[in-house]
Write a structure and sequence with these properties.
eight-stranded mixed sheet, globular, Aminopeptidase, 8 strands, alpha+beta, disordered C terminus
Length: 183
């Protein structure tokens, strides 16, 4: 998938093992900046390589590139190990600092929604900080709705009493069993 944002062409593709270092760099920026994750420990390229290798076809990692430079990534993650939740997927999106606020996250998120539909998911969920204004606006633009708030759910350095908003979006799939409600 290729999308043009403000005259910049962003190409999405499946992540490859060689992307682990760039994925690690971008994820570590997210950890340091405390905008999109409660993670506190920086990752290593070796850890991210092992994480990538452990992924399966239903839980892909997509990367966004500009001029062959990896500037963002997103992943579909297992929501819950119980088989009853096999039609629900969690997501993550991370954008390199210099590219934030320029529409790249939207390209990656749209790619994840498209892939989720293709894979037969009919609901996507994520946890996001309510004070991540840009992220919350992006999720709303793509049809995600706020469904709840986790209060005082962490002791992370970000803020011991932070509220994390859970969001969800129906990604209606033609392959979803008819017994599951569609929204």
């Amino acid at each position: 998938m290729t999308a043009t944002i403000r005259t910049t062409r962003v190409t999405l593709r499946d992540a490859a093992p060689a992307d682990a270092e760039a994925i690690c760099r971008i994820y570590n920026q997210g950890i340091e900046d405390r905008v999109a994750t409660l993670e506190t420990e920086l990752r290593t390229p070796a850890e991210r390589a092992a994480w990538l290798a452990a992924r399966d076809a239903r839980h892909p990692v997509l990367v966004g590139e500009v001029d062959s430079s990896l500037i963002a990534w997103g992943s579909l993650n297992r929501f819950n190990p119980r088989p009853a939740y096999d039609h629900v997927v969690d997501l993550s999106v991370y954008v390199e600092r210099a590219w934030r606020g320029r529409g790249v996250g939207g390209v990656v998120l749209a790619g994840l929604v498209e892939r989720a539909r293709t894979l037969g998911y009919h609901k996507m969920v994520l946890a996001a900080f309510p004070d991540n204004v840009a992220g919350m606006a992006l999720y709303a633009r793509l049809g995600f709705t706020r469904v709840g708030v986790y209060r005082e759910s962490t002791s992370a350095a970000r803020a011991p009493s932070c509220a994390t908003t859970a969001s969800a979006c129906a990604v209606e799939s033609p392959t979803a069993p008819s017994r599951w409600p569609r929204r």
